[in-house]
Amino acid sequence: MDRRESIKSLLLGSVAAGLVLQGCAPDEITTATPEVSQGPFYGRTPDEVIRDKKLHEEMFFNEHELSTIAVLCDIILPKNTSYGSATDVGVHEFIAFIVKDMTSKKTPLRGGIMWLDSFSNKSYKKDFAACSNKEQLAICDQIAYPGKTSPELNGGEKFFSSMRNLTMTGYFTSKVGIEDLGYKGNMPNVWDGIPEDVLKDHGMAYEKEWLAKCVDQTKRGDIAVWDDKGNLIS
Predict the structure, then answer these.
(1) CA distances from 118 to 4, 80, 162 (A)
(2) Sorting pLDDT into bands at 50, 70 and 90, what band is 188?
(3) Helix axes 133-141, 63-76, angle to 10 degrees
(4) Which of 88, 119, 192, 204 has its CA 20 to 30 A from that of 13?
(5) Is 26 exposed, middle or buried (0-12, 13-18, 19+ CB in 10 A)?
(6) Same-domain pairing of 220 and 124
(7) pTM of the full predicted structure?
(8) What is the domain range of residue 111?
């Protein structure tokens, strides 16, 4: 089982409920029903729209930090024959936004990148992002497996675990990631009405006009229209 399949199996189990985001809920809950946005920030209240715009405009990670995050994301979830890598769906951008939304993650992630570069420089005399893929994987193999990490590398293990959780969350909540996961959710069936033999057993039958209006699969997307007496118009 490769890394992608292993992560999918985790997400389908109880681990999925405890992923890093923990809801990303606002600090306060109100019982009022606020006006919601119909624009680019669809479904957001005016205050949430203002906050979202502010977070999107804010810059926290510098270019070097973002490139390091991107490299780690693709090491954790590389592309395969069917789907692209984590960065192909913008997971690195997702992480850049999350640290602004969940400010408690700013220092641990920035400090983790500094730790990674320090360790990389000791091992290969260059920053992690400048290393070859082989060198990068050799470093990650030393910090990627909780319980098997040398005590002096525990800081790196915690950072890598945080990056893995964020990468998993970002990828498998994207449209492509959900497709990769194979999650279907609630999907409508093609309904052709009650089977004719069942109707006959109960001495019933569809009216032809009703059947043509309600069990025509070419009109599945049409919304039924009723008059004020409850009669179906179209």
Answers:
(1) 28, 31, 18
(2) low
(3) 70
(4) 88
(5) exposed
(6) no
(7) 0.64
(8) 3-12+37-181
